[in-house]
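[Automated response] Your request has been received and processed.

Submitted sequence:
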Amino acid sequence: MPRITNSILVANYVNNMRRNLGNMSALQNQLSSGKSITRASDNPYTATRIMQLNSEIAANKQYNSNIKDTSNWLDTTDTALSEAGNVFSRIRELMVKAGNGTYDKDEISNIKDEVVQKVAQLGDILNSSFDGNFIFGGTKSTSKPLVANSDGSIDYLDKNGAVAALGTDAYNQINTKLKAEISTGVTVDYNQTAHDILNFTDTDTSTNVDVSKVLKDIVSDLGNPSNITDLTGTQLTKIDYITKNLLKCRSSVGAMQNRMDSAQATNEDQNYNMTTILSEVGDVDYTEKTMEYSVSQTVYTASLQTSAKVLTKTLLDYL
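Generated structure:
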């Protein structure tokens, strides 16, 4: 049996005291910070989980922000489309009045002037913006997408305010969908473009409709008494196509709004769940840690008392 010397007892005592003090220090840090670990070396596996959860929560908050921005954009779009529908409803009403044959030349002229003003109002609606971006401009969102002319026509514009012809970069940008990522790997197209409203094909009759040309022809017919009858024929039918297309666009916006509401509810549930898991993994149980600290403190006090009885007195005790 090896000989146990006084120096060995002292060394073991010091090592045990350091261990006890280390445990008390760790518990004090946990109680003061509220976190189960303060360094990755404390528990590498738990530290990895905490970092992953924090990363996922941060990404989830960004998705939530994307969803809210998209919802606000869609609200603005729906309001604009509703106003555009009111414009075309009034234009249709004026066309029916002008085409019934009971109005004189001056009254027809007044109707023409009002139609021109309604087209100008439509131009303002289609140049609506949200948060500094033109909502119907596609990816060309920092400058006005179009202009309404006094002859009733509507032209697409490039970034310099010049007319953008079919096939140009500006025209293609206006006809481009915007995308938003609302969760991991899930991206949605959420905007309606000026092209969706002004150039479309009627789904029931496969008729291609150029709204700019329709409005220009209406204004032209109002300026030519011999063409007044056209207002209650072909032109009225095309206005009905336009109104139906606006309702289709609003329906698409409404469906996307419902999807955003559902996505936001899911996002908030996921964020709550991940935050709860993060708390369970990274936060301390104060009741448990307080009890552990009390036990550690008792052990430390007992070790001091035991050492006083076990260790041999030194010369200093007699001085």
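Summary generated for your ticket: The chain has a mean pLDDT of 85. The longest helix spans residues 44-99.
If you did not submit this request, please reply to this message.
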